[in-house]
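Researcher: I need the complex structure. Ligand is NAP. Inputs:
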Amino acid sequence: MAIEILQTRPLVASCERALAQRYTVHKLHEQVDPDAWVVANGARIRAHAGSGVQVSLMDRLPNLEIIAGFGVGVDNIDVHAARAREIRVTNTPDVLSDAVAELTLGLMISLARRIPQGDRYVRAGKWPGGSFGLFSELTGKTVGIVGLGRIGKEIAARAQAMKMRVVYHGRHQQPGVHYVYYDDLEAMARDSDWLVVIAPGGKGTERMVSRSVLEALGPEGMLVNVARGSLVDEPAMIELLQSGGLGGAALDVFEHEPQVPEALLGLDNVVLSPHQGSATRQTRDAMGALLVANLDRHFAGEPLISEVV
Ligand code: NAP
Ligand code: 8YV
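Model: Output:
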């Protein structure tokens, strides 16, 4: 009997091809009347391929066994509700850590040397009119990493290669990690030139980078957010960027993305990126392969590769 699974948003082509070879795939986002489709067919669905599953959908899929997420962050999956319904949840950690770390360093260098602004300056024909300006290096600066996890450690290694001093904040000091640990985020911000945010999204980290943390980072301080927009007090960040209370920001994620606050678009001490951390062909294919492998393991009765527990 064919195993029927559901998608509610497009997935990378290689992943969709692999799923179609193995399963009967229904794409809810392509249905003319998604609600009517779920009412008529939801009982046949055994798995959801992709992230973004809330309890309202779970309740309409009575035989859902597993949600195979696409991405390592699971803040857009109601994991608590899934657990209560004995629905397994998997994600795609590790395979994307290098890509996210590379983008993070790219955003840091771009902000430090105003690379996007320099490109626009040349394209606008302004160079003959004078010099673009002097900015600053990463070398010798202190970077405070908020969330020294799988990706945070890859960022730290690359920052060290840029001759930066690395310190970190998390809920726990990690044994065997030689970077200086701060249990107080505001204290770390005060002692840092750069603050890189790479902890998980969700209620536990909402606006943890508060106005007081941003003020502690200060007028020369640079904020990088490659985690989730929810971790930063975005209105306070914008106000401090405008007033000079915060030196600059490089942002790959936003509170209400893909909508980005208009106020950010006009700021010259900001670099903006449309949630591109894992957006390479190689990494997205690897994420898709891991999603499929988790589903295959589940239906073969074998241990899952990356279960969210
Ligand atoms: P991970 O290995 O689980 O690392 C998470 C780190 O955050 C851990 O070091 C953890 O340390 C720390 N942490 C967790 N809760 C915290 C809290 N309340 N306060 C302070 N620190 C906390 O996860 P990962 O694989 O590195 O991924 C991290 C996040 O990056 C994902 O959840 C996702 O939101 C984001 N991400 C973004 C992109 C993008 O495209 N921009 C791509 C991939 C991932 P403690 O347990 O010691 O607190
Ligand atoms: C997204 C991410 O998953 O993995 C994560 O948590 O934030 C990204 O890799 C990616 O944008 C696919 O939706």
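Model: Summary of the prediction. The CA atoms of residues 82 and 88 lie 7 Å apart.
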